[in-house]
Amino acid sequence: MGRSGKRIGLKMIAEKAGVSMATVSLALSDHPNVNAETKQRIMRLSRELGYVTTRDLNMRKARRKVKRLGFVAIGTSLHSGHRGFLEPLEREAEQYGMQVEAISMPSQDPDEVLQQLLTFGKTVDGLLVTDNVNSALLQALDVLERPVLAFGHTKDRDDEALSLEHVRILAPDETAVTRCATAWLYRRGRRQVAFAAPQLPGGGSDDRQFDGWRLASLDAGHAPVAEDIYIAGTASASIDIADFFLRRTSLPDAYYVTDVRLARHLIDALSARGVALSPEQVVFHGPRSYILEAGLGHHPHIELDFEKMARTAAAIMARPDRRVLEEGIRILYPLPMNNFTD
Questions:
Q1: DSSP SS3 for 282
Q2: Reading across the β-sheet that carries 193-197, which strands appear in turn?
Q3: 338/149 Cα distance (integer angstroms)
Q4: Cα dihedral sign for 275, 278, 282, 284?
Q5: Please, are residues 296 and 283 in contact by the beta-carbon 8 Å criterion?
Q6: Would you state the pLDDT for residue 17?
Q7: 325 pLDDT band (50/70/90 cuts)?
Q8: CA–CA distance from 127 to each of 120, 171, 242 (Å)?
């Protein structure tokens, strides 16, 4: 009901705003396809009319009972990357009346980690897990019979085959966005786009980005070969990244790099050898804090958006019975692409 006692719906807001109901729905969901001016007008009208969004209702319901959320970094200690996500997560969780307790389990023994997780999981109402997550671990956590949300993709890439009742995976759609970013380089006349990553294979983010790069290369008529691919720390890339590419007959004229720190090193190492790269020759992926620290904010890049990830995670954990959890184990969300201009 609105302040006048009348039921307020999307149709009334659409009529007053002079837009379609679909546009109102997208604006209230903060969808990027609605321009800022229209979105602000619709939001202002909805407040003036007393419209209550589903998110508001969810928050009101969730506030009736404070929940404890456990955040666990598996196989590693808590670091700056985790903190970059935890800060917005704690803010979002607080709006739903939830408290976040963050710990790390740095042990590399899978049995020990599982036992610690099961013990800790019984002390909280929901569990968020990240880093060294695999399918077997998620299957074991399903017995807790409480919501479990894993961040990113499983290391063994078997998550698509899982059928679990209480466990879901929240992950960026890295294959699609990497394919789009690599295609952008080819559309700008680049003939060969090389690929560089800290690790591969082994599941997770780098594998998905490799898939996107490979598909875009094939789309452009370029079949990837071994000399196009630098994976740090492997036998084929035991030399520095700059020397790896310089030993080719001809240098690639663009690079897709899965990690912003590796991208910074590539730029500096080639520069030290007399090869200057323009911003439009190097596309990379990473959290905003790492991108700013590397001084590469002006480059075309894919941003790992911790704020959006935190909002989505908090909403899911506040209402784990929401319809979205019936649509499959993986919940994919898009990543922002910055400084890509045609």
A1: strand
A2: 229-231, 193-197, 254-257, 282-287, 301-304, 337-338
A3: 28
A4: positive
A5: no
A6: 87
A7: very low
A8: 9, 16, 42
